[in-house]
TrEMBL record:
Its EC number is 3.5.4.4. Belongs to the metallo-dependent hydrolases superfamily. Adenosine and AMP deaminases family. Keywords: Hydrolase, Metal-binding, Zinc. CDD domains: ADA_AMPD. Its cofactor is Zn(2+). It comes from Funiculus sociatus GB2-A5. InterPro entries: A_deaminase_dom (IPR001365), Ado/ade_deaminase (IPR006330), Metal_Hydrolase (IPR032466). Residues 5-319 form the Adenosine deaminase domain. It comes from the Bacteria. This is adenosine deaminase. Signal peptide: none annotated.
């Protein structure tokens, strides 16, 4: 059995439609009345949007119900599905903790509540019957105030038992007017020893080379090989990995056809730039990681050798994977040891 690493999955977009709809009908009368029948809700929740901003509005639907009280419910089902249906050995969950705090509180009170959210997500992610190595990436947000974003970086530094990195999310076009601010925040994070990734070069409106030197991985990054291939040597030199999420680009209107990603993979492989294939929002897309692999293979975007290279890159660039090898190598070593022991006993 193959075991995989998922490096780019949002907590808000990870809830599969059926689980979310059932929660509405058990616990939220207003949303249950809005979506009385499941097929209508699934069509609404998973259909493509015209722009990234329109697509991101769906996150607010889930964020509103992911509270300190309900997060264990959602995370247990997330981990169960990831283990049983996706064969994940490693999962990084990313989200903005501030947006899971009660919105009736003051900004300072919500900032204080963020640590509780991180603890709840961390504890809930450790499910003994579904042994997956998990960690959190805390997302700064392009539409949140500087004080909140700096507090998110500080929290990442203080909660290293559960947190492996920081990110910037919220729509890449909105970074432009505060670019110097986010450069400073990423520089601050690196000064604290925090690992970094960031939603950049996802769309043509989110291309900020000024931020690249401060990132260890690049969230999406597909516009680099598509429109700025001259940057690829620098990306390779920094050993930065692109977190490519194929279905996302169809759902956000960024690409018209997944086959357009062939140029992304070809140019990255030619330049020596690693790619980790990810889901981004597996629930929102109703697509699990093995199906992302299968779609890319079926459409001849990549071959099996490239797929294996991407799977290996995911473990190599994982921020909190605790082993030097990927699971397949560890299992192979165990089987060889057992075989040798058997032979020795038989002799």
């Amino acid at each position: 059995m193959s075991l995989y690493a998922e490096l780019h999955r949002h907590l808000g977009g990870s809830v599969v439609p059926r689980v979310l709809w059932r929660y509405f009908h058990r616990s939220d009368r207003d949303l249950a009345q809005r979506f009385p029948e499941y097929p209508e809700f699934e069509e609404f929740y998973t259909r493509p949007r015209n722009t990234l901003d329109e697509y991101l509005e769906l996150h607010t639907l889930v964020e509103s119900v992911q509270t300190a009280q309900t997060l264990p419910y959602f995370i247990y089902r997330l981990i169960r599905g990831a283990y049983i249906f996706e064969n994940l050995a490693y999962l990084e969950l990313r989200y903005t903790p501030y947006l899971r705090t009660p919105d009736h509180l003051s900004q300072s009170e919500r900032i204080e509540k963020m640590a509780e959210i991180v603890d709840i997500v961390g504890i809930s992610s450790r499910v003994p019957e579904y042994p997956i190595v998990t960690s959190q990436i805390l997302c700064m947000h392009s539409r949140l105030p500087y004080e909140v974003n700096r507090a998110i970086v500080d929290l990442a530094s203080q909660a290293k038992e559960y947190v492996c990195a920081v990110d910037i999310a919220g729509g890449d076009a909105h970074v432009a007017e505060r670019l110097d601010e986010f450069v400073g925040l990423f520089e601050y994070a690196r000064s604290l020893g925090i690992k970094t990734t960031g939603h950049l070069f996802e769309t043509s409106s989110g291309c900020y080379p000024q931020l690249l030197p401060y990132l260890m991985r690049i969230g999406h990054g597909i516009q680099i090989p598509l429109k700025y291939p001259e940057l690829l040597p620098e990306v390779a030199q920094r050993n930065q990995c692109l977190e490519v999420c194929p279905t996302t680009y169809l759902k956000t209107g960024t690409l018209e056809d997944m086959r357009q990603l062939k140029l992304v993979f070809d140019r990255c492989f030619d330049a020596g730039v690693d790619i980790a294939i990810c889901t981004d929002n597996a629930g929102l897309h109703n697509v699990r990681l093995p199906f992302e692999y299968e779609n890319l293979l079926t459409l001849d975007v990549i071959g099996f050798d490239q797929l294996q290279a991407c799977q290996e890159a995911a473990f190599r660039h994982a921020f909190a994977w605790p082993y030097a090898q990927r699971p397949a190598s560890i299992l192979t070593g165990l089987l060889q040891t057992e075989s040798g022991d058997t032979l020795a006993i038989g002799g």
